[in-house]
Amino acid sequence: MMTPSPHVKDSINTQKVMLTVAIALLPSLLAALYYFSFPALVLVATCVISCVVFEQLFCMVTKTQSSIHDCSAVVTGMILGFNVPVTLPLWMAIVGSFIAIVVVKCLFGGIGCNFANPAATARIFLLVSFATAMTNWVAPLHGVADTVASATPGRAMCNVMGVDYLAAATPLSSHVVEKPGFMQLLLGQHGGSLGETCAIALIIGGAFLLWRGIITWHIPVSVIGSVFVFALLFGQDPIFSILTGGVMIGAFFMATDYSTSPVTPKGQIIFGIGIGFITMVIRTFCSYPEGMSFAILLMNILTPHIDSLTMTKPFGAVFAEKNK
């Protein structure tokens, strides 16, 4: 019996890929638990459970086969939980999970059919809809979250660029937040969303994905490298720019989403450079504290065009077209 290509068989499947990504996210989860204590676990668990429940309910309402066994909803919930502050009300996290799973993923056909990254889009929705709650970061202190809101390093960098980053803090935060050192950024000893603070945990998780072959180097390297280059061109500290905000989690865990990123290595590099450029433009010239999610969403929209420009044609296709 004749079957269409590809004919290569492999033991890897969607469930195994998603479980590997979930394992890669564990170092960041442990760091969040250390710095933000039990509320961090509650928030991430709320996002994960909400995503799984919404996907199952959608399958029941539409009378389609349940897809929660592939664990993609679990990964989406974890990444969404890492993209919000620990102080975010749980009902807002549930709303974000609904946007990610039902609106962005399921309504477009489920896994592999969505045109945009669910977690990035949900974060943008929450930031636009609940700006105060989404920018109410707390300073971590050895597993106990300080009750005084503080600016993230992204906000501190905006202050260097002439933007008043204390506008997002509560009136209690009248003191000036100093720019954290590189070691603080690596270890996560600064304010921010749950999964964005500890850069070393994200690097460990990203290296694990590279080692397992789940992702390739093209997108992470091009994203991080372009942020470095454009930070220099825009007069910013390049190392500081890489270690702050959502650069690391975006480069390793969000931009590398199979269904929303280009398939060719050349296209992936173009995709990553575009993300780095848009991120630094937003950070430098806009009032938003972070541009990674916006950059990923915009480049997701351009992915089909990047694929059409970089996809190689089968042997003989050009000759056949010329002789039509």
Q: Could you characterize what this model shows?
A:
- It contains 15 helices and no strands.
- The protein is about 60% helix and about 0% strand.
- It has one domain (about 15-310).
- Mean pLDDT is about 80; it is low at about 145-150, about 160-175 and about 320-324.
- It has helices spanning about 15-35, 40-60, 70-80, 90-105, 120-130, 130-135, 155-160, 180-185, 200-210, 220-235, 240-245, 245-255, 265-285, 290-310, 315-320.
- Helix 4 packs across helix 5, helix 9 packs parallel to helix 12 (about 245-255) and helix 10 (about 220-235) packs antiparallel against helix 12.
- It has about 325 residues and is mostly helical.
Biggest beta sheet attributes: none
Structural class: mainly alpha
Number of domains: 1
Helix content: 55-70%
Strand content: under 5%
Tally of alpha and pi helices: 15
Question: What would you say about this model in short?
Answer:
This protein is mostly helical and 324 residues long.
Write the layout of secondary structure elements.
Elements: H1 14-36, H2 38-62, H3 72-82, H4 90-105, H5 118-129, H6 131-134, H7 153-160, H8 182-187, H9 199-212, H10 218-233, H11 238-243, H12 247-254, H13 265-285, H14 292-310, H15 317-322
